[in-house]
């Protein structure tokens, strides 16, 4: 098997494997430019926003999905947590994350202007894939620092053990993979 065949929202996609150092691999799911899947997944996930008043995502792959969910919920805007400080940002709050797709630790930043939008609000955190949950946990800490309340955690896919979590809503499970004799085989 050179790729993983995924079916989600009635759509089929071929996901290439990305090797990790310990002989395992993950199936690379890059949804940011997949308009068809974003639209269908956004519509399905919007139903689980649990009264959210604003949507939050971490750049970059979750941005299109956050846009679609906020559109489905008739919201005027959504908030993006950045992976670098932009020149127009005057002040910010930050946290650290170590995700499966990023080498090493990485700081993430929430512009104080965006933080004000979260204050006292019910926030739905949106991501494309939840794996170890590190990005999600960092986003939650930023929401708390901003004075918001996380009311839902939404993703298209839950990878590996994340699919066992009861505090997230996702549309499809995505296994992790171990190198077999001839190809990658699902671990769980």
Automatic annotation (TrEMBL):
The keyword Glycosyltransferase applies. It comes from the Bacteria. The keyword Transferase applies. GO terms for molecular function: glycosyltransferase activity. InterPro entries: PRTase-like (IPR029057), PRTase_dom (IPR000836). Keywords: Glycosyltransferase, Transferase. Residues 33-165 form the Phosphoribosyltransferase domain. This is Phosphoribosyltransferase family protein. It comes from Roseburia amylophila. The lineage of its organism: Bacteria, Bacillati, Bacillota, Clostridia, Lachnospirales.
């Amino acid at each position: 098997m050179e790729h993983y065949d995924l079916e989600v929202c009635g759509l089929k996609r071929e996901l290439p494997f990305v090797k990790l150092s310990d002989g395992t691999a993950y199936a690379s799911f890059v949804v940011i430019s997949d308009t068809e899947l974003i639209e269908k997944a956004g519509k399905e996930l919007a139903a689980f926003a649990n009264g959210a008043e604003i949507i939050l995502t971490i750049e970059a792959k979750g941005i299109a999905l956050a846009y679609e969910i906020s559109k489905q919920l008739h919201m005027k805007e959504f908030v993006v947590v950045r992976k670098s400080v932009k020149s127009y940002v005057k002040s910010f709050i930050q946290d650290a994350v170590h995700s499966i797709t990023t080498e090493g630790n990485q700081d993430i930043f929430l512009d104080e202007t965006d933080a004000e939008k979260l204050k006292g609000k019910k926030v739905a955190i949106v991501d494309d894939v939840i794996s170890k949950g590190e990005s999600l946990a960092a986003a939650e800490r930023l929401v708390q620092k901003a004075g918001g309340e996380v009311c839902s955690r939404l993703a298209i896919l839950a990878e590996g053990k994340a699919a066992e979590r009861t505090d997230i809503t996702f549309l499809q499970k995505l296994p992790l993979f171990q190198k077999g004799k001839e190809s990658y085989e699902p671990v769980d």
